[in-house]
Amino acid sequence: MSERPRVAITMGDAAGIGPEITVKSLADPIVAGWCIPLVLGDAGVLERARGAAGVSAPLRRIGSPEEASGEPGVIEVIDAGSIDMATHRWGEINPAFGAAAVRWTKEAGQMALAGRVDAMVSAPLNKEAMREAGYPYEGQTEILGELTQSRPAMVMIVDRMRCMLFTNHMAMRQVCDYVRTDRVLERLVLADAALRDMGIARPSIAIAGLNPHASENGLFGREELDQIAPAIEAARARGIDAQGPFPADTVFLKAREGIYDLTMALYHDQGLMAVKLVGFGRVVTLLIGLPLIRTSTGHGTAFDIAGKNLADHRNLLEAVRVAAEVARGGKAARRRGLAAAFGRAA
User: pTM value?
Assistant: First the structure.
């Protein structure tokens, strides 16, 4: 690996804010101090985004990751040329844009697996456009899981708080059936291993309850007693400092203060509400359990403000910084990078 890691940034849905926050981020010369960034996307859309955002940084087309120079303030893009600019409209669902975003995610993942880039960062795609294009994925997590034949988990990081999602985009009716002892234990083992890779010698992991008041000993549901508590017990038998289940209305207050190294939320909105209340616009998503490094923004495509020069790019900028920090060097350097990136002592 070069002194500066190569970081591939996928542009996301062409009709969303992804192109705008990408050009705004790469126009900042600070990025070149962190890494050699390159974009997988469409040069025509990026040019349109430059105009909409008033970004003067030049755009340079390259043919491969190896051609990227990382010159400060230059936006280098591997141009797929897959967007028909005659059909491009900001803020509109377009299956072709959904298909392109899926393809860029897969290509970046393949580059990372082949060692051609050292990390990847994802701008947001639009799930409706993706599904209209015939891709039934829940999101980019599932795309990369399929590509790598793994079951990654999302960890949302903001300030001293780390929140892991047990389920991602799943209907609430399905969540209750999905909460099973073996599945909870598997995620606890994965979380413990990832935290140790961050340089935390003995991680503490809290598990939020599924039901109100963590069911009050079975009064409001049996999932805590029958499925979650046995998983915690099994994890502790393996030397994992798993605690809970705790009522969700209080456990995230302690997580915000850094009392736990990670808190597991059992369903999507349970975790996302917590981290976004703590730091909306600053949340970075790290996927764990993948054979590659991938971060992303903690927000969506924001079709309502796309193309209006209203999108705040700092969340993507932070995702690039974290990815570059994690990617730098070997395992020991990776551990130091994770600890530094997340503001915790190793």
Answer: 0.83
